[in-house]
């Protein structure tokens, strides 16, 4: 004989499960590029108080024209990687009395309870220009969103710095576990690093040459476990490749390609960071309707490692990454 009461309970349970499945929210994704407007490039990311902060350059050249026109930097924030707020322009070339133009890729780092935004620009003082004329300066604030002010009144690194390079751009600053601060930078196949003093605005010792296979520009340092990862743009048009070491100063052992070349964007500039138990890579492409080599847009995708700690090549997506709680 059929147990009608048991059968009724089973039907009711099945109905509840079906209803729950219908009502379960679909995963929310960031989408790529993250923003259609403004045009953004050269990402840097920082986590503070359970929020992801994204700092970018701004591609301002009109459609159909060539060359980098960049005068300012933006900040964005997200609590979950899928929903982003444009916090507006937080720093401009005009905030530095010594700078004239070319607001290229910057880097924000937290230290001593403050936020330090290292940025390269061309100097106004032509007597200090012997190569491309870029200097790396720094602004400071009490919060990731500012307000920022010039912390030094001049560049930390410029053409006349001993052992500087032809194109002193793309700073990447890392505070090591012992509190020592290192600033990497480089372009045109040359990379450098220098220690910074505790005040974050002065060098501490000589500028050192970095030996990393295929390096072109866009250095970034991150650490996972006891391994330091040194990622960078390689070749031109650029892939993103990386080397690793047990020391932040190397020697750097080459590991391979993380991100392939990007259609219609010969530059490739990454930021790698962990947030709420997930690993991410920010980069830019040229996938807006009027995008191009000088009209780029920041994206984000998941970053994965194999069992031996080797970074797997990025699977770039249109959907981006799902929301994390």
Automatic annotation (TrEMBL):
A single GO molecular function term of this UniProt record: hydrolase activity, hydrolyzing O-glycosyl compounds
Record-annotated active site: 42 (proton acceptor), 217 (proton donor)
Species per Swiss-Prot/TrEMBL record: Mangrovibacterium marinum
Highest taxon above the source species: Bacteria
Name assigned to this protein: Glycosyl hydrolase family 43
GO biological process: xylan catabolic process
InterPro entries referenced in this protein's UniProt entry, alphabetically: Glyco_hydro_43, Glyco_hydro_beta-prop_sf, Glycosyl_Hydrlase_43_Enz
Keyword Hydrolase on entry: yes
Site feature (Important for catalytic activity, responsible for pKa modulation of the active site Glu and correct orientation of both the proton donor and substrate) residues: 170
UniProtKB keywords: Carbohydrate metabolism, Glycosidase, Hydrolase, Polysaccharide degradation, Xylan degradation
Hydrolase is among the record's keywords: yes
UniProt similarity note: Belongs to the glycosyl hydrolase 43 family.
């Amino acid at each position: 004989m059929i147990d009608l009461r048991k059968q009724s309970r089973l039907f009711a349970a099945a109905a509840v499960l079906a209803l729950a499945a219908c009502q379960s929210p679909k995963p929310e994704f960031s989408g790529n590029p993250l923003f259609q407007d403004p045009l953004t490039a050269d990402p840097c990311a920082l986590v503070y108080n359970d929020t992801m902060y994204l700092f970018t350059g701004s591609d301002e050249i009109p459609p159909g024209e060539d060359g980098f026109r960049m005068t300012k930097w933006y900040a964005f924030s997200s609590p979950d990687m899928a929903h982003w707020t444009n916090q507006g322009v937080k720093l401009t070339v005009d905030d530095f009395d010594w700078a004239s133009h070319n607001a290229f890729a910057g880097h924000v780092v937290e230290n001593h309870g403050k936020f330090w935004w290292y940025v390269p620009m061309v100097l106004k003082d032509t007597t200090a220009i012997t190569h491309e004329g870029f200097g790396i300066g720094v602004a400071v604030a009490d919060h990731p969103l500012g307000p920022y002010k010039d912390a030094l009144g001049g560049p930390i690194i410029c053409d006349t710095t001993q052992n500087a390079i032809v194109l002193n751009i793309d700073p990447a600053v890392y505070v090591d576990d012992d509190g020592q601060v290192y600033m990497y930078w480089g372009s045109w196949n040359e990379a450098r690093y220098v220690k910074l003093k505790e005040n974050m605005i002065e060098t501490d010792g000589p500028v050192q040459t970095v030996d990393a296979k295929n390096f072109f520009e866009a250095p970034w340092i991150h650490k996972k476990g006891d391994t330091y990862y040194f990622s960078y743009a390689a070749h031109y048009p650029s892939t993103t490749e990386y080397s690793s070491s047990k020391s932040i100063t190397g020697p750097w052992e080459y590991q391979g390609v993380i991100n392939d070349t990007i259609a219609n964007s010969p530059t490739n500039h990454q930021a790698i960071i962990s947030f709420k138990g997930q690993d991410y890579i920010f980069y830019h492409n040229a996938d807006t309707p009027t995008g191009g080599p000088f009209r780029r847009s920041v994206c984000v995708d998941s970053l994965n490692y194999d069992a031996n700690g080797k970074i797997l090549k990025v699977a770039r997506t249109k959907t981006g990454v799902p929301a994390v709680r």
